[in-house]
Each structure stands twice: as structure tokens, then as C-alpha cells.
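Record type: monomer structure entry
Structure origin: computed from sequence
Chain ID: A
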Amino acid sequence: GIAARAQANQAMSTEEIVSYCTGDKGTFVTCEIYGQAVYDTYLVYSQHKKSPKFICVKQPAPPRKEVIQEYVNWAKAHPKYAKAPAADTMLRFLGERFPCGKASGK
């Protein structure tokens, strides 16, 4: 009972979402849905004037699968974030990949 509830309250880790994104655990669509939810939440909160905008995706945006692969590569290159919440590292990656006020490409 209590142990199950404690686990349910933990955020998904970076290594866990990477396992979905690479197909090692579950389906790739889980990765896509989770990533889109993180980004959509960022978009909603970044509309508030008090929230700093730090992700600016220039249109046309690259294909989602390409960005996910870049995130997987980024996560593997930054193993210190393996146990960090996946939402945090996704936002870190997106901020680096699509910074505001700079060229938003590679």
C-alpha cells in the first residue's frame, strides 16, 4: 500500500523516458506523448509575463522523431541527469536546442 503510493508519486526519470524513446521499455508512442505533454505545459506557462520564455522553436519545426533522437543523444551525453525528472531534462535540452534570442537551429 504505502510503498506503491510512494512510487506513484515519483516523477518519471530521464533514464526511464529514454528507455521508452529508444524502444527498450514499452512503446515509442509513450515517449512522444510524454514529450508533447511536457512541451505543451511549458507553452501554457510561458504565456504568463512572470514566466521567462527560454524555448523558441523556429518554424517550420524539425520532425518530432528527429528532436526525440537528439534528446536521447543529449541524455546519454549527460549521464549526471539519469535520475533527474524527465520533464526537467527535456526542458533543459529544448532550451539548449531551441534557445530564444539566438538562431533556433543546429
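Annotation 1: Residues 28-46 form the longest helix (19 residues).
Annotation 2: Residues 1-6 have pLDDT under 50 and may be disordered.
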